[in-house]
Amino acid sequence: MVTIDDFSIFSWLPSELAYLGILVISFILNIIPFLPVPDFPVLVTATFDSKLDPHLIALYSSLGMGAAKMVIFYASYYGRKFFFSAKAKENMLPLQRLLARYGWGGAFAATVTPIPDDLVYIPLGLAKYSPWKFATAVFAGKFIQNEFIVWGAIYLGRPFVENIIGYSTSTVNLVAIGVASVAVLVVMVYFFPRIDYAKIIGKWFPWTLDDQGKDKNGQGQKQ
Question: What domain range includes position 188?
Fold first, then answer.
């Protein structure tokens, strides 16, 4: 059973090194897609170190998490040329236009909600979403989430947080989340380039089609 005591290393470090440690550990815990190891024990144990500022704990952890997610994003961003044909890339243009307008909200929502965020981040990379917009959405979401965890630990206290950690980090929960996430990703990557986005997205968002409002076969879409 994982408890916050298992991560209690920051009290032995000077403040500068403690913040760096928070950043590095947060990066490592987030760099592997679908690694279901919760990173909030790092935040909680740091919170109970009186020499550390709660806002800086949230900030440095957010920087580490965001950097890791950018690595995953760029891997899918540039990796798509090895997996998708030219026809598949052309087929995805309506999706890219849709994400260009609404992708920020999707990335932000995936960050602050309990869903496995890589299920959203990887498709955004495959669809060549703006890296700058992705980075700001992820950082904003992570920072808000981390602030909530840090101040929750301060006001709710250590026993309450330990109970949450004990439940969330049970072996069965971690394995189940990891297996399910990987399975969903495999299915998603297989079907992702095969979906007729012009027909599906164009029906509800005709502006995602070409300038003439036609699908890839040159047929006009019904409004």
Answer: 4-208
Task: Identify the pLDDT of residue 212.
Answer: 40
Q: Chain-wide mean pLDDT for the chain?
A: 75
Whether residue 55 lies inside any domain: the answer is yes
Regarding predicted confidence, which is higher, 65 or 101? 65
The larger pLDDT score, comparing residue 159 to residue 151, is at: 151
**Is the pLDDT at 137 greater than 90, yes or no?**
yes
List of residues 6+ apart from 34 with CB closer than 8 A: 116, 118, 177, 178, 181, 182, 185
How far is it, in rounded angstroms, from Cα 108 to Cα 120? 10
The answer to whether residue 8 sits within a structural domain is yes
Q: Which residues contact 136 (CB under 8 A, 6 or more apart)?
A: 104
Q: How wide is the angle at C-alpha 176 spanned by C-alphas 173 and 181, nearest 5°?
A: 125
Q: Is residue 223 part of a domain?
A: no
In the numeric block, which tokens belong to residue 194?
A: 């095969």
Q: Residues near 29 by Cβ (< 8 Å), separated by ≥ 6?
A: 35, 37, 39, 42, 68
With respect to residue 93, please indicate whether it lies within any of the assigned structural domains. Answer: yes
Q: Is the pLDDT of residue 58 over 70?
A: yes
How many domains does the chain contain in total?
Answer: 1
Closest CA to 104 of 120, 89, 116: 120
